[in-house]
Amino acid sequence: MTHAAILTNDALAVLNSTRSLPLIAVLSVKFAACVTKWATRRRTRLTLDQLDAWQLEDVGITPAAARSEARKVFWRA
Question: Per the database record, which ranges form the YjiS-like domain (predicted)?
Answer without folding.
Answer: 35-67
